[in-house]
Amino acid sequence: MKKRVHVNQHQIKSNAKTGAREPVLTIKTYKSNTYAHEVEIKGPCRVVYRPDKPLPCGAKVWIETDSEVIPFVMDPEAIGRPMELAGDPDHVVAVAVPLFDALAKLT
Question: For a pLDDT cut of 90, what percent of the chain falls above it?
Answer without folding.
Answer: 58
